[in-house]
Amino acid sequence: xxxxxxxxxxxxxxxxxxxxxxxxxxxxxxxxxxxxxxxxxxxxxxxxxxxxxxxxxxxxxxxxxxxxxxxxxxxxxxxxxxxxxxxxxxxxxxxxxxxxxxxxxxxxxxxxxxxxxxxxxxxxxxxxxxxxxxxxxxxxxxxxxxxxxxxxxxxxxxxxxxxxxxxxxxxxxxxxxxxxxxxxxxxxxxxxxxxxx
Length: 197
Description:
Blueprint: H1 2-47, H2 51-65, E1 97-100, E2 104-107, E3 118-127, H3 130-138, H4 140-152, H5 162-177, E4 187-195
Antiparallel strand pairs: 1-3, 2-3, 3-4
Helix pairs in contact: 4-5
């Protein structure tokens, strides 16, 4: 009988190393999955163009097309910084006109809460030329309505992080371009942004 107990103890003890191997394998798979998720999110973040990237691309392309007036294509010489920004004090072509809209104070969606939340924001939009600026001015009621409707559809948690605000800027740009016919809004910028707590 004591020999049977020894065999049972030995077989029970053998389950311990098997369990450790399984737990180690599961832990390894979870760690690899986390690394994969982080890698994908970093790649996604790198693929999003920033204002600086767009300026550098436009400035570099225009400097090469213009034959390098004053500065080589690499951006060196004559005190010009690399990236095709041109000489200090000169405006890089390709930028549109900036239109400052009146301040917005808009209620946000707060399902299940009795405390209203709101955002106070100043918005500037970039338009390519005077014709689009004139049309936007004529359609200011539609512009403000579209922006207010988009903000009303957002929860405070949607606007806490920069990703949510960037997504909202793209939504605003797309909404405005839906009814502007003489051209397209090139960019939407929040020049002041305050979220109620």
